[in-house]
Amino acid sequence: MKVFITxxxxxxxxxxxxxxxxxxxxxxxxxxxxxxxxxxxxxEHDALLSVGGNRIDAAFxxxxxxxxxxxLMAVGYDNVDVAAATALKIPIGNTPGVLSxxxxxxxxxxxxxxxxxxxxxxxxxxxxxxxxxxxTANLGMELNGRxxxxxxxxxxxxxxxxxxxxxxxxxxxxxxxxxxxEAEQLLGxxxxxxxxxLRESDVLSLHAALTPExxxxxxxxxxxxxxxxxxxxxxxxxxxxxxQDLLAALQQHxxxxxxxxxxxxxPMDKNNPLLEMPNVAVLPxxxxxxVEARSGMAKMAAENVIAGLKGAPLxxxxxxx
Length: 321
Ligand code: 8YV
Description:
By secondary structure, the chain is of the alpha/beta class. The chain contains twelve helices and twelve strands. The protein has two domains: 2-98 and 291-310, NAD(P)-binding Rossmann-like Domain (Rossmann fold, 3-Layer(aba) Sandwich), CATH 3.40.50.720; 100-282, Rossmann fold (3-Layer(aba) Sandwich). Strands 8-7-6-9-10-11-12 form a seven-stranded parallel β-sheet, with helices on both faces. Strands 2-1-3-4-5 form a five-stranded parallel β-sheet.
């Protein structure tokens, strides 16, 4: 049995595959595979371990219906046509939970970096532009007691809310498709409708899945309802905010700042004006980029491959077959 792996992954995953007697091919070049290349590679293998946003769409699945499992080394599966996979009886696995803390840390980092214009200040020093100490310059804002609004209070949103309550005593409001009563009890979080979330959040952080409903949901109309002192944080998926509208909202002081770990497209163009704004912090999709999270993800992804190749139910499964 052979699995094709679309990137170099941590040893924790490879070790498990070797122990299970599964052969693997890693795509080691630092470039995306074209859809045709991915299909050609999968035709030579029995399973796919997919890292990054390869489109696992109906055409791919149809061309590769021999695959015994598609195991994502990611929690998000917006790149997969799950209905098509289910119809073809192809199990899809993902890696939830193990990256929640790391991703929440990234949101927390962006929140604080944005509030204190930290990335911009770093650039000023590196360019030799820091002249002397000015009591009225470089002023940011304090987060103590400000309201955290979470769009999608699941595992990652809850981890962020805990950090914000502990560090800055921030009250938490949230908007979800369904209520999260456990988090309400744990954090005193208050469920609000979408409009109220926009209106009352001082820091608004996205932790929902990218779906047809959430794509572009954070647009000019949404930013217009937010506070002029508010900070927008996205560590979920870049396609959930409209980048032109976000830029305009920042330029026109409709909102105060933004911290982005995800952009649309990735990588963000180096000439993007957002990169030159003092109240903006941008990172290259490093939400889950810790040793702990990535080794955990590789392990879970390998466990899904091993189960799928045996024809057993996946331990971390996206679709019910
Ligand atoms: C992954 C992510 O590293 O898990 C997710 O959904 O966005 C990241 O943690 C990335 O998608 C690569 O697969």
